[in-house]
Amino acid sequence: MASALLTRQEQGIVVFALWRSLAYAPRLAFSLLCIGAGLALQAATGSVLPWCLLVLAGNLLLVVRGYDNRVQYAGYEAGASWEKADRAALDAVIELHRKMRRWDRSALDVTNPLGGVLFALVAVVIGAMIVRGAQPGGAAWMITGVNAAILIVPHWVTGIRSILTKPALVIKIDTINAVTAAAAAALAGATVEYFMLLKGKETKLPDDVKIRVKLPEQREGFLGLYGQVVTNTVQGTTYPYFYTVLVAKKGFGLRRAHERYTAPEGVTAEYSEQEDVEVFVIRQTTTKTSGYHTKPAAAARLLGEGVLAARGAFGS
Fold this sequence. Notes:
Layout: H1 8-11, E1 14-16, H2 24-45, H3 52-60, E2 64-67, E3 82-85, H4 87-104, H5 113-133, H6 139-157, H7 167-182, E4 191-199, E5 205-214, E6 222-234, E7 237-249, H8 254-260, E8 267-274, E9 277-284, H9 296-314
Antiparallel strand pairs: 1-2, 3-4, 4-5, 5-6, 6-7, 7-9, 8-9
Helix pairs in contact: 2-3, 3-6, 4-7, 5-6, 7-9, 8-9
């Protein structure tokens, strides 16, 4: 039940299993009233049934189903895709993920070692109480054991939590933050803008992140220098792969810029045309078995190469 005693901040993101529309304050008051009445009636009558059902009803109102980590963005229209964000929005996703991970490691969760050991110990103690309560003169033991089970077990069972989270998104945000910090020299004089890909018809969920670098000397027709991250999972571990994309309207001259660009060792440059745009990609060279993880220093180098290539295109 302690998991349902929430701070004001937690009240806005925790989802209860039953009667979700009920506000937290009346929920807590009604729950405690039911539990208190049920315990008092059992103590007065010396009987577990039917008064333990009041305790069960009150406790079920406090069972937490999980976190609702949907991110609200005021003014965003439904169906929008990439939307401009700020660093604070990215930091909010990281902070929320950190809180959810800490909550998910709660002792009231049989899926982690601490929770499993404590659950086993509590089960033994409660079982011993109920066994003792079944013997003559054991009414008090029975009441204590049954109510302990009613108050504790539901929270442990629902401790097997399915949290709506985006660990890949967190890795991407961490990568973007590390890259922009490491590439500070290459980005001198430039403006870095953050974008989130939001999905969902009713409430927007952040699904991806990228940056756009605006250079003071860029020409009309240049649509952006982007830094993006994809993730690759190998043997259960997720690795970030950062790459740089230059995008311009057809006829801008990215093909010429690509032809003049000399990629350093370990870097691959690719040019393509998609619909009405020219696309120039600078990425880390990959093989069948390597190259799919770009560390911050390598990613910063790729972003710096993108800046150089863009400036070369502006002079073409």
